[in-house]
Amino acid sequence: MWWKARLIALLALLLLGTAVPASAASPLDLTSGFYVNPNSAPAQWVAANPGDSRAAKINASIATNPIARWFGNDGDIGSTVADYAGAADSHDLLPVLVAYNLPGRDACGGESAGGAGSVSAYKTWISGFAAGVGTHPAVVIIEPDALGDFDCMTDAQIADRNTMLVYATQMFQQKAPNTYAYLDGGHTNWVDAPIMASRLSAAGVGNVRGFSVNVSNFYTTSSSVGYANSVNSSLGGGAKFVVDTSRNGNGSNGEWCNPAGRKLGVTAQTGGGAELLLWVKTPGVSDGKCGIAPTVPAGTFSPDLAVRLIDGT
Fold first, then answer.
1. Which pick of 37, 156, 262, 311 has the fewest CB atoms within 10 Å?
2. Of the listed 145, 149, 160, 244, which one is catalytic?
3. Correct CATH for 2-311 of 3.20.20.40, 3.30.230.70, 3.90.550.10, 1.10.10.10
């Protein structure tokens, strides 16, 4: 029973303090399904546009499914995360959260630039994030694209990034005992598997559950699982991995920024070749002013993009 696992985890915290390993309790065992964010961008758009002919389709196909919530720069990140993880916990459901606030993020793409102002600011932010999760069951994806951007960074920037990522993994290890945290590992057509494995290792993947692949991308689940297995083999086989299936129903056409003809993938579930298949990217949210949405900024929900993903056009 989930409540027995929760009791064991809480007793461990009382006996051992806050430095409890991330494997203290499985968040899957502590919950009865995935949390649907009632305030996701698609849900907010549907609520604000009930008379729009696209609203019912977007609500049924996207807004009512479990989607990760992304967290960026927030001076009160601990409270924000605690409120969200607590809301899911109150329903005995498992939330998926994305930590996305590295300085110089999206160094190669440039569409989602931003992040914390310094290494120390990031450390303060991610520490607060992990503390906000606390003992709540959760899945956390740590910094999408962070280990794929090295070709667009200086050696000093790479060193700083590794310092921040190692610290992030340590914070979830120490402060969020009922969380499965996954350090992002790019996608199947970006960085060769042995190189990505070495980057993951240097960034602290051994401190957390494992790594994620295909976040905000379009590669098929089978391709992503094959790549992740190769990465894991190079790591020694001890890590778990998750796949973002939010937009991979038709696979990739080689474009990363709002390409046409993509489609929703399978909704959140355990297994499927990975530990978890998740909707990490919010379907319908633009990658940037590019592709079939040249006027829609990154991070903005577009009902046209959403319907295209539903229809596969």
1. 156
2. 145
3. 3.20.20.40
